[in-house]
Target: Proline hydroxylase
Amino acid sequence: MNRLVVDANAPVSAEARVAAFDWTALAGDLDSYGCAVLSGLLTPEECRGVVALYPDENHFRSHVIMARHGFGKGEYRYFRYPLPDLIGGIRTALYPRLAGVANAWSERMGMEQRFPDDHAAFLRRCHDAGQTRPTPLLLQYVAGDFNCLHQDLYGDLWFPIQVAILLSEPDRDFTGGEFALTEQRPRMQSRVEVVPLRQGDAVAFAVNSRPVRGTKGTYRVNLRHGVSRVRSGMRHTLGVIFHDAR
Model:
């Protein structure tokens, strides 16, 4: 299992903990399934610390009630800049590990877009394009809540992979609420991937589309992600999106 073991008494930097994963295996999972799990990316203590930020509006730029917009049921808050150190550090450390996969996907799909190795350089491109609002977000669901299948694009310039980190423990803090990813394949029925996660686990997944090798060459599949109905308790998730919003 691709699990990181973090000693709570000896905090590990974001760069070191991200580097400790088997990125060859993770890239293979992204290529094969459109998603990959980074087990134990955050410690339980870190998860609880992020959840504790939710009531304090000073950390956030906006608050979205999903039912008002037809997104499902539940709510979330977008962080403001500067991001909390843990979240900003994880975002910066993850990006270059995923940029290679993103560039390979662009090449295979015949797309001109290429992504720099450095996240700050990519954010400068976003800002030059008028996309200046931070996109990391903290989601909160209670019993009966769910997140409709969707894509997080936010503008003309977007990074094709994002990461969601489960901050709550299934079967203790909540039941139900499974992360789901669907692929709409040309002239075929859609494929569904349900990803089991524990507290602190992260899932990296395709935002919009990814290449798939077929018998007649490579073709593109479109993806959407969502969360099934929470049946009891409360579920929190940290969403790490690498492009900024318009």
